Amino acid sequence: MPFVVSIADAQARFPQYTFLAALTPSEQKAAFHVRDAAGRHLCLKVIAPGYDVRRVEREIQAMQALQHPNVVRLVEYTFSATGTGTTHYILEEFVDGDDLSVHLTGAPWARPRASRFFAAMADGLAAIAEKDLVHRDLKPSNVRVRANEVPVIIDFGLARHLQLTDLTTTAQGARIGTPAYFAPEQFTGTRHDVDHRTDLFAFGVLAYQALVGLHPFSRLGMDYAQLQTEVCASVAFKQDATFKALPPMWQLIVGKLLAKSRAERPTNAAQVASILRKLETV
Amino acid sequence: MKRGIWHQLGDKNQIMAQEQIETGNGVGVILSPRDLALEKATEYAAVYRELEAEVLWDPQFYLPEFSNDNLDTYPTSDHRVSISDLAKFDAAQLGKLRDALQSVSQALQVDAILAPAVIYQAGHADLLRLNERLLAIAREVGAALGKPTYATVVFGRSATSSDQTLGPLLEHVTGLPSDGWYFGFEFEPERVPTDRATVKRCCTTTLALACTGRPVMHAFAGLMAPLGLGSGATAAAIGHSQNLWRFSPERWQPSEPGGGGGAPPRFFSRSLWGTIVHPDELVQLDAALRGRVITPSAFSGSVTANPPQPWSKWDAHKHLLAIIGAEAARLIGTGGAKVIATGVVQLLKDAVALHADIRKQTGLILKDGTSVYQDPWRIAMEEVLRDNDGDYKYLELL
Q1: Among the options A99, A137, A155, A166, which is catalytic?
Q2: Residue B397: which of A192, A261, A278 has the nearest Cβ?
Q3: How far A266 CA sits from the closest chain B CA (Å)?
Q4: CATH number, position A129
Q5: DSSP codes joined into one string, B233-247
Q6: Cα(A256)–Cα(A183) distance, rounded to whole angstroms?
Q7: Domain check: are A132 and A82 in the same one?
Q8: Which of A71, A93, A115 is the last residue of a domain?
Q9: Best exposed site among A85, A111, A264, B383 by fewest CB in 10 Å?
């Protein structure tokens, strides 16, 4: 159930900003497009009461460490409690544009476009990995696309720092994120099995969607168990006619991104970015 | 990591490695001290560097409690304890081990830090965590000295015996933060590995490590050096001693007295890709077969003399290293990993044919199973080429 705050209520609570539009809320946050007194366009996320403060602080730590054109920039974080209640919000750069999901409706994309777009996105992922972070929830709605087609990775609410203790409960194991973009290890592994290559699998799903126009595993009406079987065991996505019509090198890189075993996936996003740039004219 | 053949040593072959490098065979040296004091290792490291060879030092925590008088001269020796005790090291103890690693690395002026690591075994998550901690301190040393740090990845027999046991470990290690790989693979205890499936597994593991885009040292490669290079390894390490022909923890167990001291020397033939005893077996071949078998080197004059002369065991060892080094250099000169692998298949195919001709014409079956591994190796390499074409193409993209 998403955490919904009306734009009028939000405006009343944060009068220093001009609220321009409500954005898609998540379970933990109600998000708004706002403008501050200096005229800057920002994204204000009101955090649901009772939401784990430690998790939010992890998200903040993750974002503070990142300064990259393909990763959303943190502007401010406020958490204060008074006798009358708490004020808890995140202010981020507002990435003008659309979600990647809007752009995927026009798939399959031309390969040069896919090369440029996903190489830039891989740059962002490389910056995330450089800080020892795993995003864990890459999906179309967490990738904003600027008017000039530059992707920006947003929403670090489920990010994990690989060198710090995970806040996820043992019962949750590795199953954090959005199942349609889960890697096999998120279905079947433990927290120890989730690493940078888990993000690369989701990245591969997005790339496949852009190049082929279909999700490689998920179909309408599929339940969780069926999806798990597809993601963990099926390579039927390689038989799609549009996929098979791609040049072999494109099939190779997307196929490796979607490998079941992490050992067979590319090791890091920087490597993927470099390869995708080489494929711009292929 | 310089590309090519490296010399692995640490007992009685320091001067031999020096001579090989002086004659152009080898681009680096791995000091794997088994019975070599730090003072001597430091002296030799300086000599090797003078010859423009790179130098690595393997701290060898495979049997972490193993030591002897010479190994006790390394500061790391103070931290040689059982695996279970090593796993209990707290931050202070790890800090001391890190300082000891740094001290030896500085003394030897190594070109990269090899992380200490215990042997990976199937189903032992505790070993994964232990090796992660050891890698972390090695990375601190690397950062302090401005050197790359290579993760030591040595898979024990419980891991290498099947794809099912090796797969999860490979998933883990390929995610480790390292600047390269120092890779060892334990086979069944044979003089030379003969099991096709296991040899193939060793090759595909090498290829998986190479596909990370980081340099791979195939340590203890021995006669398998060409297969390592054909599987994407940047470098392969060789040594004359049979305990350097393949990774085996027995190397770090106290030696038994005796051994093959009185045995006649073996001639390593490129065209057999194996040994033949000089003169006992060689004299049983007619001139034509002898001509095909004898692949000379600067150290084989006694064998090619007419009539053949007694040959020293040390010259036989030097000849072995020279032939493997020359063949590796030739293969590297032909192209990338896939081209090398194709060359390895041809090398082994020719060897199998020659062994068959010897058997057919003389009825001679070479001693110690020296003709039984070439065909399984050939098939393994062919299967790697067939089944891992995507990996080879990916390697070319990097």
Answers
A1: A137
A2: A278
A3: 7
A4: 1.10.510.10
A5: -SEEEE-SSGGGSSB
A6: 13
A7: no
A8: A93
A9: A85
Q: Are residues A120 and A251 in the same domain?
A: yes
Q: Quick check: is A2 in a domain?
A: no
> How many C-alpha atoms does A76 have within 13 Å on its Cβ side?
12
Q: What is the pLDDT along chain A (282 residues), one digit of tens a residue?
A: 788 899 999 999 999 999 999 988 877 789 999 999 999 999 999 988 877 777 777 777 777 878 899 999 988 888 887 777 778 888 989 998 999 999 999 999 999 999 999 999 999 999 999 988 888 889 998 999 999 999 999 987 666 766 655 545 444 556 667 889 999 999 987 777 889 999 999 999 999 999 999 999 988 888 999 999 999 999 999 999 999 999 999 999 999 999 999 999 999 999 999 999 999 888
Which residue intervals of chain A are DSSP H helices?
Answer: 7-13, 53-64, 100-104, 111-130, 184-188, 196-212, 224-233, 241-244, 248-257, 269-278
The distance of B355 to chain A (nearest Cα, Å) reads: 37
pLDDT at B255: 66
Q: How far apart are CA B318 and CA B302, in angstroms?
A: 13
Complex confidence, ipTM: 0.85
Give the residue on B whose Cα is nearest the Cα of A269. Answer: B212
Q: Are residues A87 and A108 in the same domain?
A: no
Q: Whole domain around residue A72: which residue ranges?
A: 7-93
Say if CB B365 and CB B180 are below 8 A apart: no
Same domain, A106 and A213: yes
User: Of A59, A77, A93, which residue constitutes the final position of a domain?
Assistant: A93
- Domain B4-252: CATH superfamily is Queuine tRNA-ribosyltransferase-like (3.20.20.105)
Element (H, E) at B7: strand B4-9
CB contact under 8 A, B397 and A249: yes
Task: Report yes or no on A249 lying in a domain.
Answer: yes
Contact between chains at A263 and B170 (C-beta distance less than 8 A): yes
Total domains in the fold of chain A = 2
A168 shares a domain with A129? yes
* Closest chain B residue by Cα to residue A276: B397
Instruction: Note the pLDDT tens digit of each residue in B5-17.
Output: 999 997 788 999 9
**Residue ranges of the alpha helices (H) in chain B?**
14-22, 38-50, 83-87, 91-108, 125-145, 157-160, 163-173, 196-210, 225-230, 287-293, 301-304, 313-334, 337-362, 374-387, 389-397
The sign of the torsion formed by the CA atoms of B189, B190, B194, B200 equals positive
- Say whether both A163 and A123 belong to one domain: yes
Q: Hey, what are B142's tokens?
A: 């690397």
Supply φ then ψ for residue B107, to 5 degrees.
Answer: -60, -40
- Is A251 found in the same domain as A274? yes
Q: Give the percent of chain A with pLDDT over 70.
A: 92
Q: Which amino acid is at A53?
A: V
pLDDT, tens digit (0-9, with 9 covering 90-100), for A99-133? 999 999 999 999 999 999 999 999 999 999 998 88
The residue extents of the domains of chain B are: 4-252, 266-389
Chain B residue numbers with beta carbons less than 8 Å from the beta carbon of A261 are: 167, 170-171
Give B126's contacts (C-beta < 8 A, 6+ positions apart).
Answer: B87
- Residue A113 sits in the same domain as residue A71: no
Q: Which of B125, B213, B397 lies nearest to residue A267, judging by beta carbons?
A: B213
Residue A1 forms part of a structural domain: no
